[in-house]
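Entry under discussion copied across for reference:
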Amino acid sequence: MKTVNKLLHTRYRVNDLEKTIRFYRDVLGLAEVRRHKSPRGSELVFLKAPASDELIEICSFPASGPVQVQTDLTHLAFEVDSLDEFAKHLAAHGLKYSDGPTMKPDGSGGFAFIDAPEGYEIELIQRSPAAKINAATY
């Protein structure tokens, strides 16, 4: 049986491309790796987290109508070293967690959410050093 090889990118369509790119770049620290227009006219920007191979494709395609993201529809999850330290980073940008942080009872890790532009959520996960070995654990 033939299967897919690996995940390459995930697309999120947005209304305000530049506002969204600034958020992912300035707040989350993602790097813009390429930008182009698709044959159907979508403006596409590909972003990458420092330690990841997969890309996030941010798409603006006004011809298809405005984007309206439903509550709890989807989110991206990123690993951070410390939720406490990331909260300080967010505060420097005038932001705060929208939910959490929620820590494991043993203090070995936890998670929190922030609101990205357009209504998308971002989950931030702090994992214990042992859990980092097994990527499925958080």
Summary: Residues 17-27 form the longest helix (11 residues). Residues 11 and 57 are 4 Å apart (CA to CA). The chain has two domains: 7-60, 75-132.
